[in-house]
Glycosyltransferase family 2 protein (Bradyrhizobium agreste), 245 residues
Amino acid sequence: MSTSQPSVSIVVPVRNEADNIAPLIAEIGAALDGRWPYEIIYVNDGSTDATGDRLAAVMKERSNLRQLRHARSGGQSAAVRSGVRAARGEIVATLDGDGQNNPAFLPDLIAAVEKGAGRVGLAAGQRVGRKDTGFKKFQSRVANGVRNAILKDGTRDTGCGLKAFRRDVFLMLPYFDGLHRFLPALVRREGYDIAYVDVIDRPRHSGVSNYGFFDRLWIGIMDLAGVWWLIRRKKPTPEVTEVNA
């Protein structure tokens, strides 16, 4: 694999996903090899299984694979933030590490940001044909409906891990736990457009969910109020020019 400066960084937050490591990395490679110079950054969020060992084994075969490790689990938003801060690409794409997000859609998301020519700050995957349980889908519908009614972000599905965005735009955003669920509203707050890409959901490769089963509505109510406040308090960004003598 090329070790040249990447233009795209793929960030994958994981916790206890040992059996999903190698298959998902192979799929990411199949989707992106030959398209962009890219790197893959796995953020090992305090795993207690063989996740770190499996990543170390694949790193011997792929020079563009990096592993960051949290000493203890900080949650999905913290893992994504660690990956974005370490990323070398101008465009960052994210996906969940359980295999439910199909890497085949990464090129469409990355291209949507590129084609935005600086206007598009985020390309958000919107799931169709979800493979979750009926209760989990119900939770998501309620949470997305409440969020959209309050924030009016025009997004039907903020829970999809498949996203691509400009790294500099992400780093402008205020950080808090749960940030990943409010990216469309916060990116709009900074004055950027959102592109939407339909993606097909699929069952996870193996294991059980390690992030966010009850993270749909009640835990996020305070976050929702906070984001609403941030949007209401936003002032236009001044145009700045440097005056030379």
The radius of gyration is 18 Å.
